[in-house]
């Protein structure tokens, strides 16, 4: 078992019940989640020692975040309290042909407003195997661009491997701004979740329409030879209720694809990418083969679609069983 | 933007939650709707000025109808109060192979019991572009047959276009009775929703098994050259949860079909035809091309299947966006 | 109309709402059911006079069982009260790729702990046409093996036909133990639900990989010439939400298969086999043809998948209508 | 144990959840009940053999009524099917200072529209100890006035005791009309639920402001010496959530009052009077003392206030235990 | 009937279900409300022509606000769209000894961030009888202090009466800041909701411990002889579930008190003060006597406690009926 | 802050929603709790380091227990997995005059079936300040009597203070058996929750009808001079919805009583005694005065009544605030 630190924003998600639009909704489901928090929970579920570092307001909502993390045995000693508010977003759940729709209300959050790294960096990375962070964090503010870079440097100095999920969000910053920062931080990264669009738009790799994902992984590694592992999911959206999902992994100049998962119906797809990332990092920590890793991670991502909430609700034994008999037969 | 009057009965629908039969149900969902009311709401959503004329009892149920219409900005100055009861129906929601099942309890309603036109007809059609009514209204009683004809005449006199949705219901009257009335009123109609069965059964057009819907539209126009526009949906019922939907339009001797919508799962199909009619009338009012009109209307009908309740919950911008990207991808 | 006695355990089922795992669930749905009780309810729904014999604790849970049976007009004069507890099981509902999962908590129940036949056997089988019991009952304990045999003998003596559903459960006893008992009791059986696995594993019929179910039915009858009827369903599990279902029947050296049912989505598949058995016994009691019987029974089983709870909620008229128009179209 | 027939209308009640007005309500709770049906269920709960005679439509709603009665082991052999609709009413639940509010939608029901006694009167009262009916039944129509009288005569002829609950409803008929009928039918009545207002308004007993209920009971018996027993509850409405309840009984020129029950909060007061009547008739059937009878009946009525739905959910043992320890302490 | 404009912020309220703390809550109830919006809805319920002026974001949440107002027939022509977010607050519902608890998350809202009066002031007050605004609006920002004053001046210029509810909130600004502004704006006010604390803390009236509310009303009028009417409620909090409520009114040197309302249980007390203000302004518009006005307003406030949501759900007829028979008896 | 170990059984509670009997309930609320687990959660909420030792089955229900404890930051390193089932009980929630009712289904649980102390006793009490256990544990079995004594001895040897809550349950063992064991174990106890009935029935102190609780505390200490602290609540049950609660403490020959709490309505009283015990032990650990301790503990117990579930949901700051302003006023 390994020790992992993830760091990022965690938000309150308020979502509608399937079949109702937001304007029709008298009640909203409350979930707490965020990319790095979701990865933390996945890894804690698999038995690793996981710290989630963030900042939440000193209110019942901040307390709810803490209890949410505790529930999955994530260490919250680096969960700071203070600042003005918890970032929030509204999710109108999609169904069939109608897509889900999101309204962000995250500006001014306790985490986004941070100007300096308030954690004790001297201890944060002690004995830590992997530090995981996503591209959403530097997108939050100029200071967060600087702080993200600083965190990566400190993590490397402490001997951690650095895991980074590009996760580009056009609502938060421009391609140009993101590309510039990514170029600065990717030299510190060991494991990287990125797709074709990231390669082309952010890292300036030229499009070759004949080429598949493996080609872009190869090109990205040429640019950043320090990165040992690339991974991402390929999702074919048939409708809001039915998606096809394939996991991909690139390691040691080799490209791997998982079995194909036809997911139908989808209960809740938020956090599926994080469940995939969590599965990949678990494979790394457990020194599983690349093939076993991508299969495990994709199974975890597929299972995530079958439960409400942002976070993976499955143990490593359950994911493994699902890989063997994932048929939908009753388990008695 | 145009001005529209629709007139008809609005009922309380009491429906089960999916997966429960009516006899198992301890609670029922309450919705208010009716063909003409649903068309009114669609058009109000698209920004038109819409009046819904009807009659409801002077009880909390009548008040609930009024507030339902207000919620969508439908004008209720011609919503009369009085009479004995609100028409009601019970809907046992279908799922998969099991069809939905309806119990009507509409006899004796305030609207159905009307004997004279209690609205101020001198003002009702002032500056109105379209008057919309359906074949359910004359099916309610003998007086309503006379009153429907009278309304159409008054509307025409006031310079309105008349829109009519055949909507034959065998539980309310015979084919013969309906056919006789339709023959009397169709000469006043400008826009008509009718299908193959209406043509054959009600208007006495002889079946030609080799022919498609376009043929019948053509034939119907030969009979009623005053009708500028025919429209209806073609629905293929795969199961109670999965339908295929195609919208059709006949205009100026030309037949148009929308793209095919595979609707799966269906949240609630009640009111989808009204959403289609609302979309067609919106195209007419906005002078959209026939192709744009049928695409818009079919998109509106498809979206209706994804929300609970009888009425369309989408603005014209949302329908238009769905036409472009209706893939089921998350809209962030 | 016939008179039927079924006898077995009835349990409390506590199930999650779809999309939630058991550990996430703050509330659980409560249903009461068991193989023989479910068959009893099906047959009572079809108008037969049905007695369900069992034993439940003298608590509100036992009372809830009684009222559940009463609700469907099942006679409870042979429902004993006493003993320590009601058998319970927890069902984590599956969805899509994720299978349902069951936790049994049935040991020590009032029924399982019975050591002697506490019912008045002199009257239990009076004027009874069919006595139905399943292979779960003798699996509960050594005394229940003896008592099952005794019940069958008494039933035969009273002139009843005996119906037996093999229903082998590996969690309760070994193949060997079950096979030994089945060999003893099958000579008393008239109607038998059994599949290929039962034939091979329990009755020692050697596998012939080229052969289909009809072959095994033939072989089983060679061993037990007293059995007039074999039946079972063939289920293809596409996912926890989509199954294909075919009913089979073997009678008078003839093999029958129902039409194919594609069930999607599945609301609740628990009790579908019992609904099938109920339909078969109804066909027998009503002297329907084998083809009509297997079609009716499969339709009943398919409908069962569309409602929550263990028991069939449909009258014989509703099943018959479904056979004719089971298209998923609205029934107005 | 005795045998009882009750006869009357049973309706669907659609009620709001506490704290919501009807116009705000997206879902309504469905319960089935009626005065005579509620009395039937109480007596069946206490172990008596009870028949409920009525008429319901041949729809799922009629079937729901039947299953509701079956659930409590009420015999439905005299529950006819036919006619047009099930009587319905809407209940906006009150709370605190805000009173509950009722909208009746019962006109034209299968029962109210009956013109002749469609039951087999030759068998209906066979071996029956008590026939119970209320003043709501003759209030439904002129034919029902005649039929009520006829039923009472037939019951008396068959040797039944007749129980009558005045239950005057000003929305259904005038005081004068009711008074005239009551004068005709009371000579056939053995047990009568009536209060001061009934005595004064319906039976023409002159008001004496110094006198209490006992005085009026005495006077009523002077008019109708055939009546052995008068009973009713005295309810002090503190608010919609808090009522004081006292049961009264007059027997053999003696007046009895139960202990005082302070009921707070009230879950659902509909049917409390019927629970009281059920308790009184149970005392009569079991030949309990007048004091024991009124205490039992009042306890039953008090308990009814603590559960949702029209009908008493308690066995005679539970009512008896409540009389002893009705303190609100946990029963472990 | 009069014409009224109210102007202020409207927020999304997310509240827990009674008996659950915020940290325990998986779902939250969504309501929309704000002091001035709630007053607008009350007056629209009573039949007045009411405009609510505000600003909401151009999202589904802004649309939900608009539909909420439409539902009660409030005119939204002056409801602007734009800005960044909808102000939000979280309400942990109290019960018994445990108080409700509020977390505000309103900073940065579309309304609070306004810097200039974006409405067309030339038309806003046309033919308007009363302009109503509260002390929360100037508390939002420095610009809002200036804009509040400006609005009052414009309203007076247009011939409106100005209604002002002090509503001091210590979380938003200091007593000193509020006192200074109030001194500037009260000379423009005709009807003023203020209590003893407002008099002492904001307007510098010295405390006289022997004196009651009437004394302070008198003193306030000495300072601001332009104010014709003072009003407020006196609330005695027995617990979060039980309050005593008395309405007070000061007019023409006369002090009036309503009957005492004991409110138990409380469903939702948010908006009760606004319901009171709405009742007072209705009395003014209808030229009711001061006594009738304070009784009506207090009854409206008491009724508000019995329904979920911020807004009064009662018509003037319902409030009037409640004044007569507000006993909690069933209204049939 | 201190370190505490509590040890005992934790069960699944399945409870009805208020106003529904168990037989009416289609869904049940699931909560996890037990005396010692509840005390553990209270103390963890107050910031202490708390270990809960127990044994649960290796199923999703055992996992749910673990996540429940994690949610409140209780250490589960000594929560063993194994055995056959999780103890369960059914709670029919009481309301008003109707008492709650409990059905236990706890026999054969993983914890109750333990025969030896499977925890590592060498480490369990390391650096632990208080070991807390209740009288339910030795009531489970003969082996548990021996093991309870052994645990206390080991705890004392390790330097822990021992806290014991008598909690006599007549369903589990006789007074005689309990009395004998209590006499053996009380010499090891430092803090003891016991009431008058415990003193008289279990410890053989003779009744003196003139004497109050303080007298019995004094007498008990004479018998067990090692016990430093006695405590318990005095509860007056007005109804299932309204109780009066007073906390009592005896320390250093001095008797203390808290302020009186009138609790109305009661949301959920299960676990209130444990919340009281948790408050007392917090006072001990924090060296609060006896008066402050009993006030804090009683406030915690009162607050527990206002939330669903067995466990206290309040931090020490929230309890302290409630002591100051516990009025039911909104906290903004």
TrEMBL record, chains A, B, C, D, E, F:
A UniProt-annotated Pfam family: PfkB
InterPro entries on file: Carb_kinase_PfkB-like, PfkB_dom, Ribokinase-like
CDD domains for the chain: KdgK (cd01166)
Membrane-spanning residues: none
Residues of the Carbohydrate kinase PfkB domain: 1-312
GO molecular function, one term: kinase activity
Top-level division of the source organism's lineage: Bacteria
Keywords: Kinase, Transferase
Family statement drawn from the similarity comment of this UniProt entry: Belongs to the carbohydrate kinase PfkB family.
Protein known as: 2-dehydro-3-deoxygluconokinase
Organism of derivation: Enterococcus rotai
